[in-house]
Amino acid sequence: MVFMSILKKISNFLKKNTGASEKEDNKSRAHGYTGKFVKQNGIDIGESIGVTETGFIVKNSEGFMSIPFEAVVTNSEIIAVGDFNREESIQLGKEWFERKDTLKFDEKGMLVK
Question: Contact 50/66 with Cβ under 8 angstroms?
Fold first, then answer.
């Protein structure tokens, strides 16, 4: 009984220090917002393909958009969105597309995130 209590305390301590819960939150958010069709006012506007810090990326025949999470009305089999600034979303989508495959290096030549 005492052993299980100690084991539980150690496990909780390690979870706090490794940031495991934060990584899981980001992973579940990405899973919940990718691979779904996105509709606005019942009209298909594209398919979600990725997640950023502030929104999710939608690909359609015209290019890419970054729609803010605040615009989401429902997220189930499809993602229904309300009003959002479409021009800003298109610009952010273009910026995302341009940098998505860009590698960044520090002054020593080491890859940075």
Answer: no
